[in-house]
Fold:
Amino acid sequence: MVKAITVHQNGGPEVLKWEDVEVPNPKYGEIRLKQNAIGLNFLDVYMRQGLYTLSPPLPFIPGMEGAGVVTAVGPGVTSCKVGDVVAYASPQVGSYAQERILPAALAVPVPSSIDPVQAAAVIFKGLTAHLLINKGFKVERGHTILVHAAAGGVGSLLCQWANAIGATVIGTVSTNEKAAQAKEDGCHHVILYKNEDFVERVMEITGGNGVEVVYDSVGKDTFRGSLACLKKRGYMVVFGYASGEPDAVRLPEIAAKSLYLTFSSVTEYTIDNREELLLASEDLFSNVANGVLKVIMSKKELVKWTDWMDECFIQSLLTQQDKGNRINGTFTSQAYANMVEELNAKTGLNLTKSHLKNRMKTLKNSFSQWYDMFRGTSLSGFGWNSETHLIEADDEVWANLINVLFK
Structure:
């Protein structure tokens, strides 16, 4: 038995259940995979909510991408062997599990230059970006392109890749923070679509000519405006509809400028097309290894906090409070800077302010965990009242700690 996240009914995040599941032996053409990491996609949400046309029947294990080590191969498998590290972007759900069965034809080798966690984070979105700039529309040097949701998973890779090719990249985003990310990813022009009309800005940027291609995963909210941004014989490449399915298109709408309308799906690579899948994945991983593509991952998920690290962190919190670096219940920026410097020196890691703030939230919700963690250490001196579910602290250190985190 292994652990997996299952969905027994459609709905919000509350329908996700952490359960024991059986993983069978691989059949003909299949492999069994022990996963190092999995990737999350907006398509997973569609399926969980039951909104996707190809949503699997209930119950199911969500998730369509991951990376790990092959632990068993079924009859007829020659593309990989036990011990190989592979990644996949699969139309067959099931990645939200510690181990899974997968058709061997969907697994691609992960080169030694790529961390399996990176591979899991980039394989689905990266293959989608590869498809969009090579198949949906062939982006070339000198083209001007518009990317909606430019700071999103696919949008970020699209901007980086198109910039490296030599295209002029225009991106739309919703916040200043995302605008900064899009610029870092290679957007030459960033449009905050909540503050300005993106059609007017695109036409202004292009001198009224429009763009060769629009990559649109937003759908209903941007679709008509996207068509208006295209130059004659421009390409409207849709690969999602996060805001809802657009209204039906009338032929005169695309006939006026002889526009092309297409929907690009990564399943073009992953269903009965292994040769192109291998070529695309090799190109993707090569560009990641060479630094052309930067894989954005949440650093807080890559830090495994140990009991010793937590003890160091709590001691650091108390020290900063004693120094007066906590005002009106909030630690100052200087306090965080001091703690980051101190903890990085002790642990040899590259922790950030974000890591510390997220860890403090976790610790606030883990009182009983603290009790088990610190009893018998230099920080012991409190009791847990099982009736009131409160800490009974006689020790000054723990009284201070309670004050730091809970008042």
In short: Residues 2-116 form a domain with the Quinone Oxidoreductase; Chain A, domain 1 fold (CATH 3.90.180.10).
